[in-house]
Design goal:
The protein has about 120 residues and is α+β, with helices and mostly antiparallel strands. It is built from three helices and six strands, in the order αββββαββα. It has a six-stranded antiparallel β-sheet, covered by helices on one side.
């Protein structure tokens, strides 16, 4: 997922020192929390893993859209359009929601690197 560099820079700044690990994932910038994929950038949109209940609420409130890249929406994930994270406070709120949900998931250990 190609990332807008300006959005990535804003997320990187807002997420610093929060325990997230940045990785290049599926062709774009992504952040993992306790080994779990948590936040990504898809073009100029945030992708946030906030859980089914919070995702449904955000969608119903018009703050997000279902994360649907393949024709099948991903449960618990949302697309957040730029106007819905245009201030640092809004962006931090999405990061907080994501961290709150992903912290409830079992931590994943790093995968062992294979020799070639």
């Amino acid at each position: 997922m190609p990332s807008d560099p300006a959005v990535s820079k804003r997320v990187r700044s807002a997420i610093a020192d929060r325990g997230f690990e940045e990785r290049f994932f599926f062709g774009g910038d992504a952040w993992f929390f306790q080994g779990n994929f948590a936040i990504g950038i898809y073009h100029d949109q945030l992708t946030c893993r906030i859980g089914v209940d919070a995702a449904n609420t955000a969608i119903d409130d018009g703050l997000a859209r279902p994360m649907d890249i393949t024709g099948k929406p991903m449960k618990g994930w949302v697309f957040v359009d730029p106007p819905d994270f245009d201030t640092k406070a809004k962006l931090v709120d999405w990061i907080d929601q994501t961290a709150d949900f992903v912290s409830t998931l079992p931590a994943k250990a790093p995968k062992a690197k294979t020799k070639k």
